[in-house]
Predict the structure.
Amino acid sequence: MKTVAFASGKGGTGKTTMTALFAHLAARELSVAVADADVEASNLPLALHVENIACESFAGGSKYTIRPEECASCGLCVAACRFDAIERDGSGSYRVDGFACEGCGACAYACPYGAVAAEPSTAGEACSGDGAVGPVAFGQLGPGQDLSGKLVTEVRRLAVDAASRHTADVLLIDGPPGIGCPLIAAVSSVDILVAVTEPTVSGAHDLERLLAIAGRLKVPVRVVLNKSDLSDEGAERIRSLCISRGLPLLAEVPFEPALAALLAGLAEGGTSASFEQTRAGVAVAAAWRALAGELRREDRVRSDLRLTERALSHRRPT
Amino acid sequence: MPGRMVLAIASGKGGTGKTLVATNVAALAAAQGYRVLLADCDVEAPNDHLFFDRTVESASLVEVPVAEVDASACTSCGRCRDACAYGAVRLLGGSAIVFEELCHGCGLCTDVCDEGAMHESLRRVGEVACGPVRDRSGLSLITGTLDVGQVKSPALIRAVRAAGSTFDADLVVLDSPPGVACSAVAAVRGADALLLVTEPTEFGLHDLELSVRLGHDLALTMAVLVNRDGSGGIDVARACEGWNVPVVGRLPFARRIAEVYAQGGIVVDGMPEVARALSSLPDVMRSLAARGRGRR
């Protein structure tokens, strides 16, 4: 199975739209599985008409509270906390600020009176269901939680499980914005990273940062320039960036409200034939063909290599 | 503008127009004669500096503590491993080892080690740059930039906030990262008011609801600005009414705005209708914040 992730650095460039459209196109010829790795703002299920959803809660770290009846107000917990998460209120008693607390437990260790209690918490949930194009895995982190990278890893695990049950040929991952922990969890070790960008100064700037992290992760990158007709100068900037870095530009997709309408229609069970009716749809379909060709080529190269290796090993005297 | 106000600008969904609103509100307020600080807290994808000609007057590295093992003193007793809430310490080959990406720098492993084998050292996560915008009197910009490959965005965001807190300004505009997790919390908590930027699409509304929940949990005074008004069929105002959050502004769905933004331009410079839509925002948010404080 091949894994393709969509990412952008900058938010709102069209990652989810592209993932959903590529999923519909891929499903014409292949068995497809999909993962939404943006667990802070999970929108892909909205676009893929997911049914039979099953969710499991995703455990967070421990949650700490101070029991006032056992607290001697000595302040040792405050001194132990590196995150300024323990406050003293007007009446002199101490309490833990759940949004500042990172759950390390240093306060509980420091308290000589055993006044700090720990209880398990839930950080969010990880879900999977049946989408119009195949199995879909997604997650939702609770507000203010700090385990997005771990939840992304869990969503990817669910997606791979579902993909192997459906013997999927390709897994498409809708990545989060940014280049931090959740993004790294979403795109590590994928076969191809599709960078969805736009012809703005912000788009180009954040694309460069995405390319830097992709380089470190040794993930090959292809580019889709979305909203390409918004700025000639901006589009030229992205094109020259692609040329100077040797990055294939899969498609330039013009800015057309019809693309959102196409996606909405597909979510409600429309057929993928309608791609050919808009300029943007034609561009996305061409991008998918280029990507699919590349995935197949890579397969052929790998199988050639395997055969060559086998032939060589046979010839070796034993 | 009496007294200092910290206005956070955020959204659950990316690309709804946080940076557009933050840069333009800051530029407008500075043009009205206020001392304005724009703090770019989107440290993974910081873009505010692309819209202004800023002179960097001060820049500082941001470092965080991480645990380190002195293998010669370690007896491999496992106490540090058991104490670590993040699974950042393991035992391997007769000694504890630390996985730096997982370490939160809480210091607990150092506290529990009886052999004195654990200590801490500092690791660079990014930098904070600060300085005035050359051609806009009264406007300064602080930018936090996460080093590529680093994962501790909240620590860097807190450093940006700390650098901004000592700055003499009438208005501090915080440009938050997208999402509703720890990075967004680090960017918006403690602000006087939170302006949520959304778009009238199904995606926008879904993520707006998550942001509203976060704002409620943080007890922040909130309001909504609808960007690209007219681009989708969703009635944002009706949803906001249900949450009891006012809609305080709308920017039209206009190709011209997107074109100016694409070039790194400040939209209010050449589009008086956009300036009109944004010029009273700080005052409106200030009165909402005052009323919110009164209720609490």
Notes: The first strand of chain A starts at residue 2 and ends at 7. Chain A has two domains: 2-57+124-271+278-289, 68-114.
